[in-house]
Request: fold
Amino acid sequence: MSREEVRNHWRSLVKEFRDSGETAAAWCRERNLDVKQFRRWTRKFDKETFTNATAPGVKLVSVQAENSVEETEPALVVHVGAASVEVHNGFNPLLLKQVVQALAE
Reply:
């Protein structure tokens, strides 16, 4: 198989897995796939998707919320496509990154 054929094969496996709703471990076990190798490919495709989503025409900017914002109000609203995510003071940056990546897909 060529390099591109291998990528396409893994890309189709990752799509099939995501459509399944199963855990990666169970899904790989049923197909006799190495779960570590599968997760490497999944991360690779996720990174490409995130990188492509922030490609041409998109400019990222740093935003700071004012301290006068009440705790019940979002400090920031992030729009990804048709979705909106409210970000409050004290948010978990890793969780926000994962949510934005999932919405970008």
